Amino acid sequence: MQFCFLVNYRQIIQMIEIPSIFINRITTVTPGVIEAARRLASLLGSGNQANISADYLSKITDSPNTHWLGATLLNDSRIIGMATLTIMPMMTNIRAGLESVVVDESVRGFGIATELCKEARVIADSLGVNTLRAAAMKDNVPSLGMLEKLGFEIETSMHYLELDIQQGPRF
Fold this sequence. Notes:
With 171 residues, the chain is α+β, with helices and mostly antiparallel strands. It contains five helices and five strands; from the N terminus they run H-E-H-H-E-E-E-H-E-H. It has helices spanning 9-15, 31-43, 54-61, 112-126, 141-149, and strands at residues 21-25, 66-73, 76-89, 94-103, 131-134. A hairpin with a 2-residue loop joins strand 2 and strand 3. The protein is globular, with a radius of gyration of 18 Å. The model is unreliable at 1-15 (pLDDT under 50).
């Protein structure tokens, strides 16, 4: 008698111990940061990742109201995930936007995006932010589900309108 077992590859991988995830603020543009930004921006659907330069990325690192986060794994300095937290002091409160949360396809499903979002929230809390908004594409079901598990609610009372003012790299 023979038995055939169907095994889900993802379940096997998830049973393997995942190395520690480290989240750090990116404050310096290095060749590794440029490579990671280009590689990860392509996963966001941006067609401009080839235009991402040190000068452009320095606008992110030099901005006092922007916290650019990078995720790495233990014993591996290669950036495997990124997120951008922008703090916006306003007349009535302090808001923050969490955008461009992206994780390398080879390590998705292991909580890296969740850790990036949690660290962004810790930073936002420490800066007195009243409202943290996160952006995700309507059809990105995994991201929407993750954000909802973290306590975000889908905003239905507002419509966000976008106007392209200047051409250039979008990250």
